[in-house]
């Protein structure tokens, strides 16, 4: 770098010299043309040497690094899981692995949601402490995918919520980054005996973490289901990722259909190495995983495949290959981002009767879809269990997020645009020309369900003795210290169907947007 700075200094001095001579001989500028041509030629030569110098230093300075994937078949026995992982990590160290990747749910796979919650720990608990000590002892980096982090908030007032964390530990035992899974796996495939709803016990994250600088380059952290969302990996690439990692516990049916294809696609489109440690085998009578931990290069070639056995795979990662692939195929610079526009489209729909018995998560509460009268891509509007005024309805983000500040710009746009539509609909139904639209953003603001939501209340003249009294009523309407009754499900279904019918008859243009 000193040589590069010296070349740059010489160039700046030549520019200064030429400017000085030009001013000095301003009366005869033509006399400077030979000197100008000489300086320009020398300047080009300097920069050519500079580029060659940087290229040479880059290729010589980036040496291949051995990495390893640990493939596990975890159960509810945390001690046994750790001992198995420790043994395999030590074997990977003997194979000269400098960075070792563990799968999602490396800590345990519970036999039920209740058992999973009971087994969960905090980041400063004994399990992560043991892994930190192991990393320090062996002087290796550890990627721990899918740690069940215990939260302080309780689900249904009984068991703690959890987050699904990817924890990155360096060779000195320090936690370098913690990514909380944002895409939760809520999938029901009856014919394949798949029925998993992660959002019923896991709180989703709200941030894509900036890639962390490591000895194998800038490492982008994902978890399992995240691999199905190309925007996620492209975001990491834009933030400078050289390597993407997706610790996973794919089901057998989805793994057989999509696992390899997804990982190779993410590698090809981002031109990054992709490392995916996986769970394998039968964890309990209800749960089995596909296995096939993979390491893929930026060209989409598979460097290592663990098949379906518990064990380790290794590969050498050469970051010069990342640079080479990106130079040969500069797809990022060819992207026409201005033409793609915002991928969020303001389209609205009414849930079909077939989905009415399905549920969605509204904070810690499960709500049936038969209460939903209008949906957008990222939000939904539904009737209220306890109304301050007739037509008092709610709008929440589909993703469980506690505060307004936790929503992305796209989610903010989506939820408030839906609120505009709902306001128009509810005012028309109730013959109102005004509405109170408000967000109780946090516990101290009166929020009882820890999920950001908008209250839409149609207003009429003299509906309250004092106009602002509505805020007092709203503040305690669901606290039990008033005369407002909790509504029966049958009453809510009737109202929801009436609103759906009104939309179909009077606001069908909304559904065509």
TrEMBL record:
The entry's family comment says: In the N-terminal section; belongs to the UPF0012 family.
- What is the official name of this protein in its record? Nitrilase and fragile histidine triad fusion protein NitFhit
The organism's superkingdom is given as: Eukaryota
Keyword list (alphabetical) reads:
Hydrolase, Multifunctional enzyme, Nucleotide-binding
Supply the EC number(s). Answer: 3.6.1.29
User: Which amino acid positions bind substrate, per UniProt?
Assistant: 384, 440, 446-449, 455
Q: Which cofactors are required for activity?
A: Mn(2+)
GO MF term set:
bis(5'-adenosyl)-triphosphatase activity; hydrolase activity, acting on carbon-nitrogen (but not peptide) bonds, in linear amides; nucleotide binding
Q: How does it assemble?
A: Homotetramer.
Single Gene Ontology BP annotation: nucleobase-containing compound metabolic process
Domain CN hydrolase: start-end pairs: 65-319
- What Gene3D superfamilies is this protein classified in? Carbon-nitrogen hydrolase, HIT-like
* Site note Important for induction of apoptosis, residues: 471
Tell me, what does this protein do in biology?
Cleaves A-5'-PPP-5'A to yield AMP and ADP.
Pfam families, alphabetized? CN_hydrolase, HIT
